[in-house]
């Protein structure tokens, strides 16, 4: 109800796009969407970024969150009542002890995939097939993380548990797919040069942990590569943080001027100190597959953006400009800094990470610009791209 957009087929080259079904005002929410499936990143979980195992809601209080990121257990946050975390509602799976933010999430996980994936008493057994799979993935995909083998495991488990298996297979088949050559590129991108030959090892571990005859194609070399590429192409980063929730709530407080200035100064300093200690990794991070969001094409001058203001996996698409009925809704796959760079630089990042060349109005206007990056851009080239991209994907 109340969704102001629909997916339409554009062309075989472009695939689908998302179009406004009514006039949308700047600042309006176009839609709120829950993922078909989602999962926290494995290193993120290993480093104690504690999130609901189903919806990724941050589980630490804002104060605990800040203390951990600062490495300082004595920190006290003012206005603790502005923290939205409700520990009294948290529940654990009685068999494997993974934690959920609520009884609803525990039940939803159990009904969709957790019966298949629950490790029970084998949670810390390194020889359990699922643990072997996760360990192999962690050794191939270091932070900044962009994907998780457990997203694929939850896809398989959702089909395995379902009474109507065809419904789930159809749900996954509507996500954008790539040609065999492009799939190779995506696998290479996710695993890197060092590990691209390891896809077969992952497939064998995946098969040992999860094989299902209804899905036998997913376990063949081609099918597994396609599944891998589907997640690599369509996965949307999710970021949650109880600290940022607390900051937003504090920003909204109506305070006398002096108190307001003190609080703002405290928050600014806190973020500076955290950056020194923890770098850019502030959020609980994971990824999910979203049917509508995955239809949004990229533009270097986007008219909408995604965010996670509810501190869980619910994705909000918000209009950045007025959008007229019938107009295509586009988001940017680049962060603000990357969008300001030359057309050549922007397309280099898009080609490497998303396998396409942009032809948005901004790129068309700049089509005759020289295909070189300016000197100061050259300095910014290289290592930061993935980290910046990942940061943009998971901005809260």
UniProtKB/TrEMBL annotation:
One Pfam entry name: SET
One annotated GO biological process: methylation
Cellular localization per UniProt: Cytoplasm
Region Disordered: start-end pairs: 368-396
An MF annotation (GO) of this entry: histone H4K20 trimethyltransferase activity
Protein EC: 2.1.1.359, 2.1.1.372
Protein name: Protein-lysine N-trimethyltransferase SMYD5
Species of origin: Pluvianellus socialis
Gene responsible for this protein: Smyd5
């Amino acid at each position: 109800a109340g969704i102001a957009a629909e997916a339409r087929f554009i062309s075989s080259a472009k695939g689908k796009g998302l179009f406004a079904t009514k006039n949308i005002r700047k600042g309006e929410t176009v839609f709120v969407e829950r993922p078909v499936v989602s999962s926290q990143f494995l290193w993120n979980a290993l480093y104690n970024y504690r999130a609901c195992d189903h919806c990724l809601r941050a589980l630490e209080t804002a104060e605990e969150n800040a203390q951990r990121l600062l490495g300082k257990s004595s920190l006290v946050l003012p206005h603790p009542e502005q923290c939205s975390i409700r520990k009294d509602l948290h529940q654990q799976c009685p068999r494997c002890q993974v934690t959920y933010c609520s009884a609803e999430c525990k039940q939803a996980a159990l009904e969709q995939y957790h019966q298949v994936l629950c490790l029970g008493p084998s949670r810390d057994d390194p020889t359990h097939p699922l643990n072997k799979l996760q360990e192999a993935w962690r050794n191939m995909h270091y932070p900044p993380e962009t994907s998780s083998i457990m997203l694929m495991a939850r896809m398989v488990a959702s089909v395995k548990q379902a009474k109507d298996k065809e419904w789930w297979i159809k749900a996954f088949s509507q996500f954008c797919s790539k040609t065999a050559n492009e799939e190779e590129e995506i696998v290479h991108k996710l695993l890197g040069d060092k590990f691209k030959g390891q896809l077969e090892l992952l497939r064998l571990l995946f098969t040992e942990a999860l094989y299902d005859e209804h899905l036998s194609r997913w376990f063949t070399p081609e099918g597994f590569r396609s599944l891998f590429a589907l997640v690599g192409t369509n996965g949307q980063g999710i970021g949650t943080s109880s600290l940022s929730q607390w900051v937003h709530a504090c920003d909204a407080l109506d305070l006398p001027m002096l108190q307001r200035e003190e609080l703002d100064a405290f928050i600014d300093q806190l973020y500076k100190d955290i950056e020194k200690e923890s770098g850019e990794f502030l959020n609980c991070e994971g990824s999910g597959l979203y049917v509508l969001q995955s239809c949004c094409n990229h533009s270097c001058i986007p008219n909408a953006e995604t965010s996670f203001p509810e501190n869980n996996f619910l994705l909000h698409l918000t209009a950045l400009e007025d959008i007229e009925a019938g107009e295509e809704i586009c988001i940017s796959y680049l962060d603000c800094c990357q969008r300001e760079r030359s057309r050549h630089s922007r397309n280099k990042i898009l080609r490497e990470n998303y396998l396409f060349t942009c032809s948005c109005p901004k790129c068309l206007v700049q089509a005759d610009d020289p295909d070189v990056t300016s000197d100061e851009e050259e300095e910014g080239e290289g290592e930061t791209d993935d980290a910046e991209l990942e940061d943009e994907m998971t901005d809260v």
